[in-house]
Write a structure and sequence with these properties.
Oligomer: single chain
Number of domains: 1
CATH topology: Rossmann fold
CATH class: Alpha Beta
Number of strands: 5
CATH superfamily: P-loop containing nucleotide triphosphate hydrolases
Structural class: alpha/beta
Order of helices and strands: EHEHHEHEHHEH
Helix content: 40-55%
Amino acid sequence: MSGAPRILLIMGVAGSGKSTIGQALAAQLGWPYFEADDFHSAANKAKMSAGIPLNDDDRAPWLAAIRAEIDRCVAAGRSAVFTCSGLKQSYRRVLMDGAPSVTLVYLHGDAETLLQRLKQRAGHFMKPAMLQSQLATLEVPADAFTVDIRKTPDAIVEEIKARLSL
């Protein structure tokens, strides 16, 4: 790979397609993929499975773990794709401050589309009833490349690649 490593941070609320898009993008680019859910503690997953929204104290070690992996990738000169809900600007600061190689991609969707997607998911710890708390928490990023989730996953991946010259 030539040039500095690039980190793509795919963000959005539950049901926006972060995992689907992140995995497809990473596969097409030949980059490693890191799923934010894999960085959650067992306690966080249990809390969400019980329908209890996480608070900032719950999220702090989770965000720190994701940032540590971003830093490891950059230090190793590896580009990568990460997913993370990144609902608040303060969370995105943890993930991005001092890391110019990170590009934020926001998967935006309306509540109805998001809810329909969540209702179709089976076996995931994030329950459809928690969507409202995520939408209420969401601080829409001003500094992100925004993509409409109503497009097909293939179209979204192609749009990201084209807009970011990948």
